[in-house]
Amino acid sequence: MRETRVHNGGGRMTMPRSRGAASGFLLILLGLWGALVPFIGPLFDFAFSPDREWTWTAARGWLEVLPGAVTVVGGFLLLSSRNRFTAMLGGWLTVLAGAWFVVGRALAAPLGLGNAGAPVAATETKRVVLELAYFYGLGALIIFLGAIALGRLSVRSVRDIDYAQRSEYAQRSAVSTTEEPLASDDVTEIQPAEETHSRRHRSLGGLFRRGDRLAHR
Length: 217
What we know:
The chain is an all-alpha fold.
């Protein structure tokens, strides 16, 4: 008889995929925006210098494309993972990428990463909007969503435990079904030893009695 009892705790690293799905999806969108806006922004008169579309510079690669790509990767891990450790790794990646959006421009010159350019704006309001949409506001929003995701992942709810128990039970059931021996169509009749011995005794006795009858005749 195989044991199918499930431990009360379930797998501590197992969680529903929906746990970080909403944050992961939003972070993917923000990462795509951060990585692509310097190349498509000039098409809508919403750009930093040089205000030419699809123009690559080292500063754009380090300060915008890199953190945007890291945010996309972290968001995808949050969106798709059923493992708490992997999802938390994705959350920390997004937090670090958001922090780099915020502080990257200040560190670009000391690190020799180049100049991200100046906002192409005729008014102070548009300049502020560009600064927020390209760097500071975008980074702060990414940090906020990543921190929310990490907070949710750090708490093991009753739903997580129930999901882990059901997953473990399903795995045990699959293993038990795989190891179950195949049923056979052959039928084997098992008779008690005493009954078999008595039948043999009666059979031999009848044979001898038959012989006695033939001898008397």
